[in-house]
UniProtKB/TrEMBL annotation:
Its main location: membrane. It is a multi-pass membrane protein. It is found in: Cell membrane. Belongs to the AzlC family. It comes from Dorea hominis. It comes from the Bacteria. Keywords: Cell membrane, Membrane, Transmembrane, Transmembrane helix, Transport. The chain crosses the membrane at residues 12-33, 40-63, 130-156, 162-180, 192-221. This is AzlC family ABC transporter permease.
C-alpha cells in the first residue's frame, strides 16, 4: 500500500465534482431500484459489479415481464458503446499499470474518463496509483449513493415520478461542458444530428435505438480521425 495514501489524498480534491454528482444520481438509481421491491444489498451489488451509470438506470426497466434477453443485451450495448472509444484512447496508459489495468478498464465511466484525460499528475505521485485512486473513489461515490437511495426508498414514502431524469440532466451538463471546452465539436454535432433525424423518422417513443445505431455507424466510419483528436486531448 506504499504510496497509495498520498495518491488518494492528492486525487480526492479532483473528484469532488464527481462526488456531488454521483451521490445524487446514485440516490435516484437506488430509489428507483427499491421501488421494484429489491433490497438495498442488490442495489449495492449491482453498483459494485455492473457500475454502468446510465446502463443501470436502463436496467431498472428490464425487471418487468416481456423484456427479452436480446433487448437487454442490445440496449445495454448501445447505451455503453461509447466506452469503446474511451478505452482505445487510454490503452497505452493502462498497459503500464500491471494488473490494475483490468479495474481501470472496468471503471471507465464518462466522468472518470474526463478526469483521467484532464487531470495533471501531481509531482512525486506515481501515475498508476493516482489514476487508480481517481477511478476507485468515483466508484465509491456511486455505490454510496445507490445504497443511500435504496435504503431511503425502502423505508420512506417516495413519489419517484421524474426521478429518472437525473441521469439525463447529468448528460446534458456533460454535453454543455464538452461543447464549451473543446474546439473540435464534430462528435457532439454528429450526436445531435443523428438524434434529430431519428426523432423525425421514428417518433419520440422509438427513436433512441435507430439514432444510436446511426451515431455508432458514423463514428466507426470516421474513427481514425476522431481517435486522433481524442488522443491529442488526453496527452
Amino acid at each position: 500500500m506504499k504510496g497509495y495514501r498520498e495518491a488518494y489524498k492528492k486525487a480526492f480534491p479532483y473528484t469532488i465534482p464527481v462526488l456531488t454528482g454521483y451521490i445524487f444520481i446514485g440516490v435516484a438509481f437506488g430509489v428507483m431500484f427499491a421501488e421494484k421491491g429489491y433490497s438495498f444489498l442488490w442495489a449495492a451489488l449491482m453498483s459494485i459489479l455492473v457500475y454502468a451509470g446510465s446502463g443501470q438506470y436502463l436496467a431498472v426497466n428490464f425487471f418487468v415481464p416481456g423484456i427479452s434477453i436480446f433487448q437487454v443485451v442490445f440496449m445495454t450495448l448501445m447505451v455503453n458503446i461509447r466506452h469503446v472509444f474511451y478505452g482505445i484512447s487510454l490503452l497505452e496508459r493502462f498497459n503500464g499499470m500491471g494488473k490494475k489495468k483490468w479495474y481501470m478498464i472496468f471503471s471507465l465511466t464518462d466522468e472518470t474518463y474526463s478526469l483521467l484525460c484532464t487531470t495533471k499528475i501531481p509531482e512525486g505521485i506515481d501515475e498508476g496509483k493516482f489514476l487508480f485512486a481517481i477511478a476507485s473513489l468515483d466508484q465509491v461515490y456511486w455505490v454510496a449513493g445507490s445504497i443511500i437511495g435504496a435504503v431511503a426508498g425502502s423505508v420512506l414514502p417516495f413519489n419517484s415520478e421524474g426521478i429518472d431524469f437525473a441521469m439525463t440532466a447529468l448528460f446534458v451538463v456533460i454535453f454543455i461542458e464538452q461543447w464549451l471546452d473543446k474546439k473540435n465539436r464534430i462528435p457532439e454535432i454528429i450526436g445531435v444530428a443523428a438524434a434529430f433525424i431519428g426523432l423525425q423518422i421514428f417518433g419520440a417513443s422509438r427513436f433512441v435505438l435507430p439514432s444510436m445505431l446511426l451515431i455508432v455507424m458514423i463514428l466507426f466510419v470516421s474513427k481514425k480521425q476522431l481517435q486522433k483528436e481524442v488522443n491529442l486531448s488526453c496527452q
